[in-house]
Amino acid sequence: MYQKYYRHFLQAAQKAAPATCDLPVLHMACHSHHYWPDVTLEAINAYWQDAAQMADSKWEKIFGEKIPAFQRGIAAALNLPAPQQIALAPNTHELVYRLISALDLNKPLRILTTDGEFYSFSRQLLRLEELPNVDVVRIATRPFATLPQRFEQELQSGNYQLAYASQVFFDSGVAFPNLLELAARKPDATQMVIDGYHAFFARPTDLSAIADKVFYTAGSYKYFGAGEGMCFMTIPRDCQLRPLNTGWFAEMAELENRAEGVGFGNNWLRFAGATMDYSPLYKALAVLDLYEREGITVASIHKYVLGNQRRFLAAMDAADHPLLNRGNLIAHDLENGHGHFFTFRCGSAENAETLQAELRQKNVLCDRRQQLLRLGFALYHPEEETFERLFT
Ligand SMILES: Cc1ncc(COP(=O)(O)O)c(C=O)c1O
Predict the structure, then answer these.
(1) The CATH number of the domain where 308 resides is what?
(2) Which atom of ligand 1 is nearest to the CA of 198?
(3) Relative to the CA of 96, which ligand 1 atom is closest?
(4) Entry's InterPro entries (predicted)?
(5) Atom 10 (ligand 1): residue with closest C-alpha?
(6) Do 240 and 336 sit in the same domain of this protein?
(7) Residue 146 located in a structural domain
(8) Do residues 6 and 13 touch, judged by C-beta distance below 8 A?
């Protein structure tokens, strides 16, 4: 009875929150905390064993074998030419802030972004904006159809040191139309970050054409399913930036100018931080191994989730729900331009809270942000799930 994908997530599925009704738990907050496949439990144990048996010498294994294996896996998933350019950190904030620290904060600093960025960046930006020399322009994400033109026009004309945009917006699930194409045309003087967190291991993404142009960030907590603590940022190969916020792990690089001042290596270690827990790395490698063994790719994950989303929409259209309906669904192009969750405008935070509680009574778990209720789709939703229980 176990499905081809669901069977890899049994431990998380069986331990899911206590039942409030007879139906099995339908976990639809996978766009936030995605279940971890069962293989990750053994991976945590393996990390403990390595720490116990190898003590300090575990670092050689981590830096010599584990990190390069992870970088190769990420590079393969995103079609990146240079795995050694993938910098690791426990969260994307650390990496993005390290990049910002490499910009000249003594000069006017112009930053272009959208009004749909996740708090990790948007809060940091608000604080930076308190500095007299920092000027931020936020392009409205809506209407989504004209977002690429509006963003690119500003990017090309505005003399920006930094541009930052999400590939899929966290508050709507809408994919930024043609973002990778417009990033390829960005001015050389502008550093550009693509926040790929809501696309990574959800939407097939080929970065080969912009690998040496943009910084791409994502992490393992969401669709990748390896939990918190393993994030990355890809670094253009010719990057000569010198982060002010530099960690001592960068000392492991072949430093370009050891004799004078602080040297930086010409690979990911330019953006390296400091001591961290690498058990999430072991979990991430276990996920990569599992997916390789089972032939699970980002394309097959996306195809499977699209099937779930179509069944959900069919059930929704056949029902007459006061909140979960097309009128309240935020979307641009559901078939081609969407991430792996749907967002519904509920009119007020109270409505969203009530709806979330009603769904909880039916053993459907989801999340909300103010008046927005988000319902996510994942590999571990059974193939025969109709989603009808949400609408009755
Ligand atoms: C779009 C986006 N970017 C980044 C993050 C995570 O940020 P950080 O790794 O800094 O905690 C999230 C988390 O939900 C997100 O939705």
Answers:
(1) 3.90.1150.10
(2) 1
(3) 10
(4) PyrdxlP-dep_Trfase, PyrdxlP-dep_Trfase_major, PyrdxlP-dep_Trfase_small
(5) 93
(6) no
(7) yes
(8) yes
